[in-house]
Amino acid sequence: MKRSSVLPKALACGLLICTAFPAGRGVAAQELTLDDYFAAAVRRSEVIATQSELIRQAEERYKQATAALLPTISGYGSYLWQDPLPTGAPSTPSNLSRQPLAKVTATQPLFRGFREIAAMRQTEALISAQSDDYQNARVLLFKDVVQNYYNVLAIERDIFNLGEEIRLNQEREKEIQARVRIGRSRVSELLNVQSTISTLRAQIEQLRGQLSVAREVFAFLSGLAADTPLRDSETLPAGVDPIENYLAGVDSRPDVRATRQRITAADENLTVARGGHLPSLDLNGNYYFDRPGYLSDSNWDVQLALTIPIYAGGSVQSKVREATSQRTQAELAMSQVTRAAEQEIRALYQSVVLNITQLEALENSTDAAKKSYEAQSAEYRLGLVINLDVLQALTAFQTNQRALDRARLTAKADYQRLLAASARRAGITSAATPSP
User: Domain range spanning residue 35?
Assistant: First the structure.
């Protein structure tokens, strides 16, 4: 084969690698770290924004519950015309033919069976639960970001490693071409290398399709351009803490805190329902601007009203039973969320431990495979091994290298998810409730 046919292939391979890792965009200041990506995703997420609105709605319900303790003041006015009474009939304020009425009424609740106080405490608990739901939405978004972030990095690293393998095979191709010209290698050896290069290029094209999909997910989550470069700034610990340290974070998880607050709210709701059995006491006052009949000179009145519930068709007791069931439901939800949290932490912990152990084995095997390839290449030049042995050694080396890089990124992803699941990852939850 002529030398001129090799150059276009080399250029094509170089162009393919440069496409996967554009040099023009590799500016450190423009590359996104995991934290940068997450911050952009928070700004973009409709789910986070929806949770913020739910918090505001809960705060308004608290204000509504507080208003039940305060007096209500309203104005009332009417003018009644009715058929005049026959001559000689006794006149009373209720049978006058013209009855104007204008007044201001004030009502101050004095006692409602402690229902208003319990309702306020209930809404306070629900505000706290909604705030924890907001924080949990951030945690869930972080997990999605981690998954996509390391998926993109892993695919890009695979493309880079395959490009490196193409480069090494092209060096083999040049060497074999020279040997073919002097009769020291067979043409079949050259064809074998060229076939390997074509296969690797096909694998790169397949990965580029996967990368395109992953990059679209990135654009959807972050709202940034799909080709925004990413930079892996996270590190793996030399070892992980005992699992008990991670399980201790279960109570600090926002989803667990939210269910605990909902149990408190259910308790207060039960108090509200039981308050329906208790009497209520109100203070009512009226000030009259215009009043018909012989009461026209009386400008005001005050009334103390006591209402004692005697029978309401069983509705009050039914509400108590319903509130009791809701309290039980909240406890069951708490149990389920806690068990799911513990299971998630245990599963991620095992994955991280196994990943770190696997990394050590892959580092050793990759180092050994690299030395084997270098030795096989040297022995091939001395005629001690055949080209197939060198290609197998090269394939084994690059396969181990790809597995090592992907395992390292997978371990980092699992470790970040473990930190998030155990409430040990800083920067995920917000220190303050989102402002309007």
Answer: 3-67+118-276+317-421
- Integer distance in angstroms from the first to the last C-alpha of the chain? 72
CA separation for the pair 51, 48 (Å, rounded): 5
Which ranges of the chain have pLDDT less than 70?
1-29, 85-95, 184-185, 431-436
Tens digit of each residue's pLDDT (9 = 90 or more) over 215-229: 999 999 999 999 999
Q: To which residue do tokens 């064809």 refer?
A: 191
Judging by beta carbons within 10 Å of its beta carbon (0-12, 13-18, 19+), is residue 235 exposed, middle or buried?
exposed
CATH code for position 137: 1.20.1600.10
434: helix, strand or coil: coil
| 211: number of Cβ within 10 Å | 20
Amino acid, res. 383: G
Q: Write out pLDDT tens, residues 156-211.
A: 999 999 998 898 888 888 877 887 777 766 788 778 888 888 999 999 999 999 99
Alpha helices in 280-314 (DSSP H): none
Question: What CA–CA distance (Å, rounded) separates 194 from 190?
Answer: 6
Tally of structural domains, the chain? 1
HEC secondary structure over 74-137: EEEEEEEECCCCCCCCCCCCCCCCEEEEEEEEEEEEEECCCHHHHHHHHHHHHHHHHHHHHHHH
Axis crossing angle, helix 315-381 with helix 254-274, rounded to the nearest 10: 170
- Token representation of residue 40: 């952009």
Residue 90 belongs to a domain: no
- Non-local CB neighbours of 328 within 8 Å, separated by 6+ positions: none
Task: Give 32's Cβ-side CA count (13 Å radius).
Answer: 26
Size of the chain, expressed as the number of residues it contains: 436
Residue 330 lies in a domain: yes
Q: What is the DSSP code string of 213-237? A: HHHHHHHHHH-S-TT--B-------
What tokens does 5 get?
């046919």
Rg of the chain's alpha carbons, rounded to an integer?
A: 38
Query: Can you tell me the distance from the alpha carbon of 242 to that of 244, in angstroms, rounded to the nearest whole number?
Result: 5
Cross-strand bridge partners of residue 432: none
Provide the token pair at 435: 């402002």
Q: How many CA atoms lie within 13 A of 75 on its CB side?
A: 4
**What does pTM read for this prediction?**
0.80
Reduced to 3 states (helix: H, G, I; strand: E, B; else coil), residue 253 is coil
CB neighbours of 254 closer than 8 A, spacing ≥ 6? 132, 133, 134, 135, 136, 138, 139, 423, 429
Q: 134: closest CA among 210, 58, 220, 187?
A: 58
